[in-house]
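Request: Give me one sample?
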Amino acid sequence: MKSSAKNVKLASVDDLFSTEESRADDSREKVVDIPLAELHPFKDHPFKVKDDDAMMDTAESIKQYGVLVPAIARPDPEGGYELVAGHRRHHASELAGKDTMPVIVRDLDDDAATIIMVDSNLQREELLPSERAFAYKMKLEAVKHQGGKNRS
């Protein structure tokens, strides 16, 4: 007769001595400090990052207080992270002489990343009409792709 011991799954020591709260905390998004050199711009990012007075003000603020709102990035299969939202904060952090910046890392497909990137930038007032139009076009294409995925 064969033993059924192969089908028994034992809990790990960590599972035995961790709390439900700590297990739930492990699955939550976290803000991590990532080296600026590991953050790469989003492919086809339509918004210009300019060294204007507003950028200098942002760099000065970051020098004094740090980055107050984390960027959003996704893991890059070729190494590092692709910056989805936070390109201006990234550049201002470089100007401020910082080595790292706070980032929320999310696993996002191209369409979800595009929608987040566009939505996070459209609220800015100083966008050029051409930037705004191109961004809306990118978002429309991403939303169309997402709609196509749900059809069977």
